[in-house]
Amino acid sequence: MNITIQQATMADVTGILPITNHAILHTTAIYDYEPRTLQDMQNWFTTKQQNNFPVLVAIINTTVVGYATYGNFNPKEGYKFCVEYSIYVSENYTGKGIGKLLLTQLIQCAKAQGMHTMIGLIDAENKNSIAFCEKLGFTKAGLLKQVGYKFNRWLDVRFMQLTLT
């Protein structure tokens, strides 16, 4: 399996959309309730580009099988060197090392942009994602109890942190 990690283009958004919508509809990885439209995702991508935030895609043959990005952790100026990352892999390709390739490259992008800290917010019940982050050097940085609500239950959020510099 030959996996290519590259900067996304607007054309890749059509491959990113079903991955995002699967996560919305079937997981607690995204705390949205409603699927996004292609226009929503095109606007999201344009905003990422305007803010100089990377959007990386994992490609097998010509198919987008995962993506990763980051954005402002908090809009206040004092947080400008801290980013919050997001990474999603198609349900058909999990457990194949794609997430590690994406996040490793995303960390390099953050370092190149002079970021100091990368934060991940993970559903506290998602032990696999927490362990995944720890393997890449992230540490547990806090737990917020019952701050999310999805699938008719309250969700705790685990903060994961990586100091980049």
From TrEMBL:
Listed Pfam families: Acetyltransf_1
Span of the signal peptide: none
Keyword Ribonucleoprotein: no
Keyword Acyltransferase in annotation: yes
Domain of life (superkingdom): Bacteria
Key words, A-Z: Acyltransferase, Transferase
InterPro entries: Acyl_CoA_acyltransferase, GNAT_dom
N-acetyltransferase domain location: 3-165
The protein's name: GNAT family N-acetyltransferase
Organism: Flavobacterium litorale
